[in-house]
Amino acid sequence: MYKVLITDPLSDQGIEKLLQAEDVEVVRKTGLTPDELLLEIESADALMVRSQTQVTSEVIEKAHRLKVIARAGVGVDNIDIAAATNKGIIVVNAPDGNTISTAEHTFAMLISLSRNIPQAYCSVIAGKWRRKDFVGVELNKKTLSIIGLGRIGAELAKRAKAFRMQVVAYDPYLSDERAEKLGVRKASLEEAIAAGDYISVHTPLTKETRHLIHRETFSLMKDGVRILNCARGGIIDEEALYEAIQSGKVAGAALDVFETEPPGNHPLFSLPQVIATPHLGASTIEAQENVAIDVSEEVLHILRGEPFKNAVNLPSIPAELQQKLQPYQVLAEKLGQFVAQAGKGAPQQITVTYAGEIAELDVAPLTRTILKGTLSHHLADVNDVNAPHLAKQRGVRVVEQKTSSSHGFTQLVKVEVQTSRETRSATGTLLNGFGPRITKIDDYPVDVTPEGHLLFIQHRDQPGAIGRVGTVLGNRGVNIATMQVGRQTIGGQAIMILRIDKSVDPDVIETLKQMDEIQSVIEIDL
Ligand SMILES: NC(=O)c1ccc[n+]([C@@H]2O[C@H](COP(=O)([O-])OP(=O)(O)OC[C@H]3O[C@@H](n4cnc5c(N)ncnc54)[C@H](O)[C@@H]3O)[C@@H](O)[C@H]2O)c1
Ligand SMILES: O=C(O)CC[C@@H](O)C(=O)O
């Protein structure tokens, strides 16, 4: 039974699938103190949050069973992604579910700001009728500068155009084609800042975007500009915004997000030109249902070892590619495990070579699985998420290469591990209808199903060697299920791979090692 801990309010309808799942226990605890969260997280397999719960490195440190942190929304700035990656915990989000809601909210703020709707409302319900105080401005023919033309920025642009606004956009990843398709003018940051009657930010909050709009940026703006932030607090320097409003440079600001949330009695709230909402961009019934459905499905997939799509700390794999790579996953992991156990010493370089049909695909996800298989022999808690990071941390070089020579097989995957003491390799394929096979160990052709207990014996090719090994094992009650031998020359170096029904005692291995013709005996568990 998997424990799914939900620590922020999520839509009941959205998490229906989780509540129905027989292998899941849903524990909903909102408003936990940091100490309470540290206790709860110890036994959780999945954690689902919105933006309130702070998933710090301390929380992640205590998360002994956690496989996934799911953010029901876009921004993951409340989650320590580096700490999660280090620990092999997958972080997923729901990037699409609240786009429309947030774009609509931004547009509502744009109109409210232009027509002083919140201020007028407060005045009317206070019994006043002061039409002169709330004269607004039209959106028609005004310029809206959008900083960050991603999902929400693009939806905002469409709405602004419907109101006959000119839209200028700055986004370092904006192509000419996309700008043209959306009907926006592509500009540099400075041009966009200078052009806008309205400036709306829609970037994530990162090291680069923190205080993207700062004191000097305000000086580049048009007099009487209006500013919107429905993305993340901190993209705009709040102190500089306060000064720019007070000086008259900025005519008004609409804020849904703040550097510190909740913002309390913020100095900006003393200015009548500022309107604000409490981080409501994604707060619609539809968006909350969408994001909760999306992350619930992702959590179930991850817990059950099924393919998933929106990992923040793993490159996303298109569904079609995922489907094509899926059959190779077991082969990849087993090859990695085999070479790690067959070799002596810690890996210094892992070289993966793909040949045949598989070489035509993007094989990076398989290389990660091979790394997981290899590193898990030496390290605890390795998975596809942290394997590349752990390899780098330990100075293991990873080389991925492709070749056209598949030696008559439809596809081949070769994993070679170089340690300080030796180089070992295992090559494998998928046999149509029969599953994974190891076809070569070092330079010895073999045909081994990579599963169960194997004895890997290096010896001299000598009459009677096979019989003597069989006798030792038989005398100790060890049943041999299959046996494969490979040699390079008659009487030269050879290998035996025995599949045995159960693990053998160390003294059986010692007895085998005493035999003259035997150089090494390694038990391999796959
Ligand atoms: N207020 C809310 O409730 C709410 C709801 C949803 C999302 N958000 C926030 O809105 C923001 C946008 O979300 P989205 O779904 O559109 O994300 P997105 O990833 O689709 O778009 C972000 C865009 O910002 C661009 N960008 C990155 N760095 C930039 C920079 N230095 N200058 C200019 N552009 C830059 C990216 O290229 C990208 O196109 C995020 O901060 C997200 O957390 C807020
Ligand atoms: O959970 C929320 O309501 C905030 C969501 C929003 O900020 C996001 O980044 O998706």
UniProtKB/TrEMBL annotation:
Residue stretches making up the ACT domain: 454-526
GO terms (BP aspect): L-serine biosynthetic process
Pfam short name (any one): 2-Hacid_dh_C
Enzyme type, top EC level: oxidoreductase
GO molecular function: NAD binding; phosphoglycerate dehydrogenase activity
Pathway annotation from the record: Amino-acid biosynthesis; L-serine biosynthesis; L-serine from 3-phospho-D-glycerate: step 1/3
Keywords: Amino-acid biosynthesis, NAD, Oxidoreductase, Serine biosynthesis
Enzyme Commission code: 1.1.1.95
SUPFAM superfamilies (UniProt xref): ACT-like, Formate/glycerate dehydrogenase catalytic domain-like, NAD(P)-binding Rossmann-fold domains, Serine metabolism enzymes domain
Catalytic reaction(s) noted: (2R)-3-phosphoglycerate + NAD(+) = 3-phosphooxypyruvate + NADH + H(+); (R)-2-hydroxyglutarate + NAD(+) = 2-oxoglutarate + NADH + H(+)
Keyword Oxidoreductase belongs to the record: yes
Family: Belongs to the D-isomer specific 2-hydroxyacid dehydrogenase family.
Role played: Catalyzes the reversible oxidation of 3-phospho-D-glycerate to 3-phosphonooxypyruvate, the first step of the phosphorylated L-serine biosynthesis pathway. Also catalyzes the reversible oxidation of 2-hydroxyglutarate to 2-oxoglutarate.
Protein name, UniProt field: D-3-phosphoglycerate dehydrogenase
Record lineage: Bacteria, Bacillati, Bacillota, Bacilli, Bacillales
